[in-house]
Amino acid sequence: MIRRLLFVLLALPTMLMAQQRRDEVRPYPGSFNWQFLGRHADAARLFNAFDYGHAILYERLLTLPLKDAKVALADEYDFLVGDLLVKPPRFAIPEEAIEPTYAKVAWRAKVTFDWAHILHRQIYDAYADPRLTPAERDALIERITDYYLEETRYALPTVPKSMALMDEQPFSQIFRREVPQFNGLIWSYHWLQIGLYEAFLTDDDRSNDAASVRQVTGRWRAMVQGAPAAYPSVMPMAPAVAPRFSKAHPRAAAIFDNLHMLHDIISDILAAPTIPRAGKGAEIQRQLDLMQDPTRDLMGAEHWWMMGDMMGGVGKMGGVAGGP
Q: Which tens digit of pLDDT belongs to each residue from 38-69?
């Protein structure tokens, strides 16, 4: 792991010199920031490893023919499961150094993911801050969500998008068919990302938070250890996996389901041999336009809440996170 990360960090200055000047996004300010890392470091650092996994996946799929990408991703999977996820990096990894080609082709998509991941982490921080009452915490989460939505170029909508965007386009489902084990690992990431919210909502006693976070994280580790059979077989969705959180903050829950759907869509575009490499950037832009449009390709709220049952039961998504 150290050798790989050292190569990335040494290569970073050269890689960044070749990049154009680009815009960035900044978190909502407040003293609640970094509470999750400070109090639940083992769980928080996993997201540094997740970021590496997403970045290397996109770079390999974009720069290699699918046959070669599958071989490379098998090695990356072993590195992730056997090393990086066992001892996650203490600090965030500069994704643009890992995915320099992808970042050039799909900068808007990269920042769209970054911006939603910041929202994820700030909501963990709000939940982890013991100084906040439940009412104060919930109000803060809504303010953070409002702040996220102000970045209209990168924000995903607060209404759930149709699953047809992920499953019924000409290029759909190719990644999960061709690279099923890596896809299962990505879906397990998504289970944990939304499932951790439930850890803070199992009861009102903040002294139980650490144990609840360890429980949810432990269930995720059991998925990885029991792979591939233990991985989710359908994409985890917030109302099924994190029902308490989804009821309390349906806007954020819909944003995260749209985010995870977009991850699948872009993986399929990059893997699809029917889309030439020179055309992948344009197709990603087109899909971003579709995903960010809050007026079309929508899933009704009732339908969204029933997706766990409609897709064969929440067990296929990894199960409900948190306590009873």
A: 999 999 999 999 999 999 999 999 999 999 99
Q: What are phi and psi of 34, to 5 degrees?
A: 75, 10
Give 204's pLDDT tier (boundaries 50, 70, 90). Answer: confident
The sign of the dihedral angle between the CA atoms of 167, 257, 71, 17 is: positive
Structure tokens at 281: 């950037």
Largest CA distance in the chain: 54
Q: What contacts 82, CB < 8 A, 6 or more positions away?
A: none
Contact 111, 25 (CB under 8 A): yes
Measured between alpha carbons, how far is 101 from 284 in angstroms, rounded to an integer? 14
First CA to last CA distance, the chain: 38
* Rounded-to-integer distance, Cα 309 and Cα 43, Å: 29
Tally of residues, the chain: 324
The answer to whether the bond into 130 is cis (omega within 30° of 0) is no
pTM of structure: 0.91
